[in-house]
Amino acid sequence: MTATSTALKHEVKDLSLAPGGKQRIEWAGREMPVLRQIQERFAQNKPLAGIRLVACCHVTTETAHLAIALKNAGADGLLIASNPLSTQDDVAASLVADYGIPVFAIKGEDNATYNRHVQIALDHKPNLIIDDGSDVTATLVKERQHQIGDIIGTTEETTTGIVRLQAMFNQGVLTFPAMNVNDADTKHFFDNRYGTGQSTLDGIIRATNILLAGKTIVIAGYGWCGKGAAMRARGMGANVIVTEIDPIKGIEAVMDGFRVMPMIEAASHGDVFITVTGNKHVIRPEHFEVMKDGAMVCNSGHFDIEIDLKSLAELSTEYRQVRNFTQQYFLKNGKSIIVLGEGRLINLAAAEGHPSAVMDMSFANQALACEYLVQNKGKLEPGLHSIPTEIDKEIGRLKLQAMGISLDTLTTEQVEYMNSWTSGT
Ligand code: ADE
């Protein structure tokens, strides 16, 4: 059942799921001490009072804590999904029923519904946009130029969104500031690496229940997400092959101890393939043709474009659903290929996304980036802006403090030494 109401401003699967969602949101909060501190401060200071805000994020227990922080801050907010298959319906229900936050997101919604929700978000006439993949910002720029005057800025969560924003800027159409949350150290070092690393394998295991030990896992892309997935797959006993197009990342993968080769060679070796490149058709017909019978393919990059599923369907006589999030394609060459999560983010489709402890820092960056945009309204140039180092370091400091870990501090002598150049050998 779908509960729809524009008066109440929500479109979620089923409001009766709210109690289970609330319990899971509270559970996630245990691992999100930095964002909880921000929630408390925002409730006192109300830094976003009077600001209309839309967030386009994966609707998870962790996003719920970001939404609560923004509501505490006084924002008039609305949340939509950033992917048709990543919504946790119980969380969406609880945000509406228990926290009074408007949500438009249903797991498994079709592309038309997804796009309609983007339009509903823009109908909210936002001053701030929190994007994960840049769909709201791109639609604003393409279709709602007349609303750009309302915009204070946008914040972007993921590598794919940053690439899109940079392309917009290069074409001269990004005419407002955009905070690059993805590139904060307290975001990509942890979320992209440890978050994607763990949750991607979690998604594969929940979808298939296969043993990873002894399998050959091919990882396409050795950015932070690929590094994390490769590291964790090796930790589970898999033989890992990396494919890359960038020479530096290729050397890095070799020196990290992985085999590196082109996809056309790796295709015949792999038992499981994971794409994390951000680019399209990384696995395509010539690769499917030479894969082993029963090879599994999945994606952990933002969009469902990395695996050429249209071509796979054309190479196949039929496909059938064999488990949740698991489809078996029967190829005309007599072999079959298993597609996980319909080629969408496997960690969010079949599992719960990154664990709360890393999203704590990612979403602390999001919350503080919104506050920064409002504090600096009218002062920032159009285009991408890094998260200020003081904010990044403060999030790291708070995280360590919450973990009960202390660091050394520089002595006066060390500070002087670091600021001098006269003493050498
Ligand atoms: N992106 C990856 N994992 C996520 C999560 N748990 N919540 C929100 N966005 C995510």
Overview in brief:
The chain has 17 helices and 17 strands.
Q: Strand percentage, roughly? A: 15-25%
How widely separated are the two ends?
A: 75 Å
What is the CATH C level class of the largest domain, in words?
Alpha Beta
Number of helices: 17
Spans where pLDDT lies below 50 across 5 or more residues:
1-7
CATH topology term of the largest domain: Rossmann fold
**Sheet having the most strands:** 8 strands, mixed
Order of the strands making up the biggest sheet: 11-10-9-12-13-16-15-14
Indicate the structural class: alpha/beta
Give the count of structural domains: 2
Q: Count every beta strand, where a strand is a DSSP E run of 2 or more residues.
A: 17
Mean pLDDT: 96
**CATH homologous superfamily classification of the largest domain:** Adenosylhomocysteinase-like
CATH architecture of the largest domain, by name, is 3-Layer(aba) Sandwich
User: Based on CA inertia axes, which overall geometry fits?
Assistant: globular
Fraction of helical residues: 40-55%
Rg, Å, rounded: 22 Å
Counting copies of identical and different chains, the oligomeric state is single chain
Family: Belongs to the adenosylhomocysteinase family.
Cofactor: NAD(+)
Function: May play a key role in the regulation of the intracellular concentration of adenosylhomocysteine.
GO molecular function, one term: adenosylhomocysteinase activity
